[in-house]
Specification:
The chain is mainly α. It contains 5 helices and no strands.
């Protein structure tokens, strides 16, 4: 997910030239992938290593699921906007999607 989301971020921030077709393609991949990780979040998979889930995923599961849904919703909006090919709209939608990702990572992922 990170690689494809990062490609959109590079375009949104001006680090890479804007390519509407590439933005739309990467957004579609991110949207599909945004639904996949949650099957792996089962009790006993917490750890302390960087990038692993914190134990509070299990004690705050409703918030975790709510944050996951928010991220999926924001990524879906990004996908629609990216298909429109308007860089300013992509920037705005990317920012909202990135904020949703960050919120969950900040709360539920080991740094």
């Amino acid at each position: 997910m990170s690689a494809h989301f990062g490609r959109i971020g590079a375009m949104a921030s001006g680090r890479a030239p804007f390519d509407a077709a590439a933005a739309a393609s990467n957004a579609e991949i991110v949207a599909a992938m945004s639904k996949l990780p949650y099957a792996g979040f089962v009790e006993g998979t917490s750890g302390t290593e960087k990038g692993t889930p914190k134990a509070n995923v299990w004690t705050e599961r409703a918030k975790f699921d709510e944050d996951a849904k928010k991220m999926q919703d924001e990524v879906a909006k990004l996908t629609v906007v990216a298909k429109g090919g308007n860089l300013d709209q992509v920037k705005t939608a990317f920012g909202s999607a990135a904020a949703a990702c960050k919120s969950c990572h900040d709360h539920f992922r080991n740094p």
